[in-house]
Amino acid sequence: MYSVDELSTPVPQIINTDHWFSRKEYREPFFVAALLAVTVLHTLSLLSRPESTYLLTTLQAVIYEAFVFNFYYTNLQLSLSAAQKALLDAIPHDVCTVIKQLDLDLEYTLFACCSMCFAQYLPNLDSPHDLYLHHCMHKPDPGGSVCDNALVRRIEGSTPVSWKLIKTFPLQNLHSWIAGLCSCPGIEEHLVASWKKSAPGSRYHDIMKALII
Ligand SMILES: [Zn+2]
């Protein structure tokens, strides 16, 4: 557990870092690579959850076929081992479960981002079915007109009516990021060592080690 003092308030903020230190279940590298591929497509390329589910199901079928491939050529009876069955069953169908299993579910705030002027808007948590402004209110030029670019588009057939952001800007919670950084193995030793000053006359490799700070 690490406490991080808020700059604006003297009350320390406690961030639970237990999950960073819990022993992780071993997973085969190809299995982790497959889950990472889906995670990257979902988080960086904005692959939707239903499309991610389709990809996960396809990966499950591909891995199954890879397991049974040899049986076709060796005329052995087709049956998976218990370990192979367990691995196939362990492939989630929801990308959110994948992200949680990989311990990549970060704390962040998802801003709406205007695709024209890049102004950003916080979600309105008092309106869970309609979290974001529908149009940009920013004035790119002082005294000019409002941008008015669409921030969301309606999801067809949704009941109640729901909206999808056209462009997003996720911002990670700074405190949880610091807590994760401080949980890395050896980071405390590196932080302490960074304050050790070089001997006078020696070569400096970091501006923080200069004599005048
Ligand atoms: Zn705008």
Number of strands: 7
Beta-strand proportion: 5-15%
Elements, N to C (H/E): EEHHHHHEEEEEHH
User: Gyration radius, to the nearest Å?
Assistant: 25 Å
Helix coverage percent of residues?
25-40%
Task: Give me the oligomer status.
Answer: single chain
- Unreliable spans are none
Counted by DSSP, the helix tally is 7
- Biggest sheet overview: 3 strands, antiparallel
End-to-end Cα distance, whole Å, is 31 Å
Helix/strand-derived class? alpha+beta
Number of domains: 2
Tell me what you see in this structure.
- The protein is flat and about 75 Å long.
- α2 packs antiparallel against α3.
- A hairpin with a 6-residue loop joins β1 (about 1-5) and β2 (about 10-15).
- The strands form 3 sheets. A 3-stranded antiparallel beta sheet has the order 4-3-7. Strands 1-2 form a two-stranded antiparallel sheet.
- It has about 210 residues and is of the alpha+beta class.
- It is built from 7 helices and 7 strands; from the N terminus they run ββαααααβββββαα.
- Helix content is about 35%, strand content about 15%.
- The chain has 2 domains: about 25-100, no CATH class; about 110-185, no CATH class.
- The longest helix has 26 residues, at about 50-75.
- It binds zinc ion.
- Zinc ion (ZN) binds near residues 136 and 138.
